[in-house]
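Question thread 4412

I'm putting together a teaching handout and wanted feedback from people who do this every day. The idea is simple: show students a protein as raw sequence, then show them the structure tokens that encode its fold, then repeat with a second protein so they can compare. Below is the first pair exactly as I plan to print it.
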Amino acid sequence: MTNPFKKFPLVSFFILAFGITWFFHFLPMVAETNGWLVLPPGSKPWISIAFFGPAISAIVVAAGQGRASLLDLLRRMLRWRVNPLWYYVAIFGPAMIILAAVGLLVLFGGAAPGFVLFQQYWRMLPLIFLETMFVGNPLAQEIGWQGFAQPRLVKKFWHKKYSMAWVSLSLGFLASLWYAPTFILPGTDGYNLYGASMAPIFILTEMGWAFFVTWIFNHTNGSALLSGLLTQTALTLWPLVFLANSANPSEIIPISPYLTLAICLVVWLLAGSLWIGTRGELGYTHLDLESLPDE
């Protein structure tokens, strides 16, 4: 009997990643929102575990491929010995980009956000960082997207004259689609902070962020840990700290659509510069892909 994990690892991964998260998280929340289902008390934290869908899928498929594939994934998850510069870039780079977008908005006559959370809780930033890192779980997501999917996309398509920029753009689009339903579900960060109408702009922005994630991934010898760190600060930590108007998720008012557009514009201006400046390779020279099985 054919092993689908060995024959179609990427297809298997994406089906599992979308299926686990959408079936066990998004569908129950949609059903509850529309009154079709009453979730028992205490069940939502367990349902939220479904956000680890990409990580679970990566581990399952890698294990199905064999020991070498699973060890490669584990090494990328734990690869922390890199140039310290990349830690600074991953943590503070997104903050500078978001603040630049705020400055652009103000320059053209828009109103700056109140930085409510930053003013009230700046002393707790390390705790907020740890909470969003491990409870908000973007790190777990990048175990799947960057730790599993990215190396295989590179191995499969890069040598066929597709640049790293196109590989990154494709993965960013798929990852943003996986996350997009949060914009239609009340109570989620995406819905509370941006509003449902901004889902297309969020998808476009995340595709731009994917260039920076791949750039760091390439410069840290394929570290899913560092790329996950940048994803966490870009999509969760700094947007909440700088842009949210309340620490209570039920009281958060969506940010100005003009600010959302400004963030998208600044991200893409820099992503485009990175694309042109690296001739589409985003710092890629070599990744250790020999341990990955051929498809």
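The second pair follows. I'd like the answer to focus on this one:
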Amino acid sequence: MGDLDLGDAGQATEKDKGEETSETQTLQKADARDRIYYPGDTERIKPLMRKLIGNIVLDQKEIWASPFRMDRQQAKWWLGFAVATGALMVTDTKASNIFENSSGQIAWGKNISRLGASYTLLPLIVGFYGYGVSRDNPKAREVGVLGTETLADSLIVVQALKAIAGRNRPDAPSDRSEFLEGGTSFPSGHAIASWSLASLIAHEYQRPKIVPVIAYGLAALASSARFTAQKHYASDIVAGGAMGWFIGRYVYQTHVNHAIHSHTWLKPQIVPVFQPAGGALGPSRPQEVGSNRRAFDKKANGPRGRNERRGQILQFSGDFQIEYLGCGKGRTMSHKSIFLLITATSLLNSAFGSDKPIKMKDLPPAVQKAIHEHTKGVKLKGLSKEVENGKTFYEVETVVNGHSRDLLLDKTGTGVEVEEEVALDSIPAPVKSAIEKKAAGGKITKVEMVTKGPSVSYEAAITKSGKKVEVAVNPDGSSAK
């Protein structure tokens, strides 16, 4: 092998620079953005928000385009879920009456389903990020950031699909389960949000198995509670849960930084390096390890923050280099901490998210005024506050001439719904006939007239064969459920 003169060295240098430039351009063309959240990105708000917003925008492009470029293996999964959802749609109306659908059951379902609401999941995500910041834990910070991205992706998708499907909910006064009616039943927002976050956490913390079990268990509980609350059909929940799981996995696989995960702990890569410009062996740019092709390339990416020192390039005898990727001296979020964080969030939600009794003096002035106007000459039985889909409502329980009359008000004091107990003989003949037909062989224990704006329907509680059943009927006698 002959010696290189200065002229040859200069030509070699120019050639090497040209090849490096070409390689960089090809890399940038193949990956128009740096999808990984490195430790330095999650430490500072400005670079974090810039990358987070950019990632969400490009996530949406890939999510909506995914049906058109799925491979055969992916097509099998999606076809299976499509068949299952379609089969459930056929039986949705009948299945929605499988339980007694009593007021107690519906209230229980509403309270439990708050576990999957966005206002419950956000504190959990913030908790992960806060833990990561306070304990200098890049992985926990990553979960907080990826959790935010996952939740944003799932909410954007579900709101768009709800607007397109327009399916009425099970508790709609008429045209139940019908599509293109302006409803918001399909798919379930609680299911897609809870399952997307559960999928992300389960992929992030795969060991021990208790973490995925808890995450998926809570997601299943929250989403199935929407069924018992008469807010969604089974097909809504299955479709939302499936899409949520895939979105959570997609965000994890696309944006996770494997350098801070235990499966890349002390994973060396030995790379012989030759530098033509100097005619000698020496160090150069780190090679790709896992999915982090530029994990610690300061020349290409600039400083990444104080945690960047955990990726070290070690050079020995000038003829090769070893790259170690791992968590270094950063602290690891224990599985006990994860369990406590999830449990604490669930308990706080149960404590503060359920229907709570409230005193008159604690109500907004507009609500107090409305209550005084609606309760003149009647007995006030109780007041409670409830939060549903991020909106606050106030329930006023009264007794009028020995019969119950419940009024639901929003925060402005406007009446949203009235449920008033009525005598069977006082209701329209078509309604009475329909209720008696459904109660054949059973006992009608209570009948209520439900008013929602201009819409009126009737609900009857029936005891039949030892089971309590609730039926809803429109003024013309047709079924409202």
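Top answer:
Good format. For the second protein you could add a caption like this: The first strand starts at residue 269 and ends at 271. The chain is about 50% helix and 15% strand.
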